[in-house]
Amino acid sequence: MYIGADFGYTLGDYTAEVNGNINNSVNFFDYDIEGFAAGAQLGYTWQKEEFIIGLEGDFGYLGAEAEEDFRDDDLAVTEFGAYGMLSGRLGLANNRSMLYLKTGLVVAQVETTVGDTDNNGAFNAQNSSTLDDVFFGYTVGGGVEHAISSNWTVKAEYLFFDFDPETSLTNDGQNTAVNHNAELHTVKVGLNYKFGNSYDPLK
């Protein structure tokens, strides 16, 4: 069993498409989001010769955000917050290093508002839509991990996140649906501490 922490950066793409029309606003928002990410992980690996299978739980903060202008007075604001992930790892060890693939399920908190703004730059309550919800999706990626001692390992990891679409409604009384989609890429480095005195340095 091991526990650890990681730090990295998130890049991605976010779209919000209006199924109809928001008064005085565009009906398709497509923009980049990015920010720093940090988290912690708890897991266990089973090692048989050079082959490694593991289960890992991650939680932390994604940090991807954006504030993007469209036309003269349309705006999109997005912020990702806390996330949790449960994934499996399949690795191949060579001496004290391991290359691995990782895939699993992810859940993340997201808040997005899109629509028309007033003369002060604030969202027009009647011509905007806000999503404050949890995104569900999957993740796939991989990395490299190296044992610097019998108990400590360092790692570098890339992950791709694809989230299921979510829907918000407009505030203009017509309850027009707005479909939200997001894809993220994260690159992280981390440090793990392995409990026990096993001779397998990555277990």
Fold blueprint:
Layout (H helix, E strand, L loop, with lengths): L1 E17 L9 E21 L2 E11 L3 E6 L3 E21 L2 E21 L5 E25 L4 E12 L2 E4 L7 E18 L9
Antiparallel strand pairs: 1-2, 1-10, 2-3, 3-5, 4-5, 5-6, 6-7, 7-8, 8-10, 9-10
Describe this protein's structure.
This protein has strands at 2-18, 28-48, 51-61, 65-70, 74-94, 97-117, 123-147, 152-163, 166-169, 177-194. By secondary structure, it is mainly β. A hairpin with a 4-residue loop joins strand 7 (123-147) and strand 8 (152-163). The radius of gyration is 21 Å and the shape is elongated. 35% of the residues are buried.
Structural class: mainly beta
SSE pattern, N- to C-terminal: EEEEEEEEEE
Count of individual domains: 1
Count, helices: 0
- Could you give the distance between the termini? 7 Å
Strand content: over 45%
Radius of gyration over C-alpha positions, nearest whole angstrom: 21 Å
Helix content: under 10%
Mean of residue pLDDT? Answer: 90
**Widest sheet: strand ordering:** 1-2-3-5-6-7-8-10
Uncertain runs are none
So what's the overall shape? elongated
How does the major sheet shape up?
8 strands, antiparallel, barrel
Give the strand tally: 10
What tags apply to this protein structure?
0% helix; eight-stranded antiparallel barrel; 203 residues; 77% strand; mainly beta; single chain
